[in-house]
Design a protein that fits this description.
The chain contains 16 helices and nine strands. By secondary structure, the protein is an alpha/beta fold. A seven-stranded mixed sheet has the order 3-2-1-4-5-7-6, with helices on both faces. The N and C termini lie far apart (about 60 Å). The N terminus is likely disordered.
Length: about 400
Amino acid sequence: MLGSIAEWLMKEVQPSDAATPVVSAFYDRFPFPGDPLQDGPPPGYNWRWCHRSVLASVHGVIPAGQQQPRILDAGCGTGVSTDYLCHLNPGAEVVAVDISDGALAVARERLERSEARQGVRSLRQEQRSLLDLGDETPFDYINSVGVLHHLREPEAGLAALADLLAPQGLLHLFLYADAGRWEIHRTQKALTLLQAGTGGDGLRLGRNLFETLPESNRLRRHHEQRWSVDCAPDANFADMYLHPQETSYNLERLFAFIETAGLQFAGFSNPELWDPARLLNGELLERAQALPVSQQWCLIEQLDPDISHFEFFLSKAPITKSSRTDDELAAAKGLRQPCLWGEPDPILGRNMEPIQLSDAAKDLLRCVDAQPDAALGSMGSPDLLRDLVDRQILLLRE
């Protein structure tokens, strides 16, 4: 009898993913991300963590009945994403989980200092694996940035998140891409061969490696030119070069991965990156734009070896993005993009890029704020409305 009990207990405490104990211990040593704590709301805005902005981007319009979403931050780390999710989604119910107690301790302090709890309906921060959330009710929005690629079996993680997604919900993922991590992978392998380890010695030896390599060395140049600022905090350097468990993808494997959970691709959350006009012009651009969209993406993957990650939305059912005629646009209701920064006159767009607004556009946005239920046609011309909607400065509401 005692033997049976012991076997049952051992089964109960078995981690859902074989890498969990190692990864949890790693993030206890190096709580990630290493963004500094501060009092008050987080700086700027990230539209990918604003449910209304995400809905407008994916659907072309904010569907009715989406005012107080239930949101999961799956693998919240030190709470940077949770902080934004709380501040950008007033009235939401937010659940944030992570396997690292050390990272969660930082997250709790971050959200306490930013007063994140004040604007949401409820907030829970718990030390749990995203694989063990079967007792939760479905979520309208799930954010899981930089998490699944650290599981031993990422497919199990994606399946678990798919089970937690509401029928009309959206899942936002961020996964490593092969091409832009060429130098990172070689540095990781070199440090493994040098038996640097994943603790303090590994950190010291990793930083020393970039100081020791010749200035002309490709790995050193790549780190100094692209990643040295991001990796200034020790936790960020460790996450990039010392992590004990990591998977990366190319586009072909990425879409095969998505299919394992029966989910639908609903668009990149950095669509500007996947526009051929970013890289090509003239005849080459015309040829690229004549390709099916999926082949355009493949072309960009080949032409831009600096793409280091994929960030994208998934849904349970296929989504057709709404398009409006001028009459339909005039009859619609609007919402100022919540992720403009620099009030009273917005100076930065949803991607923190400088934007120019005409006096007519500023007047229209002020009218939308003052009369949120009025038809947009009474506020501006069809050309002005379409320009603001296309630029995601004005969001449409059902």
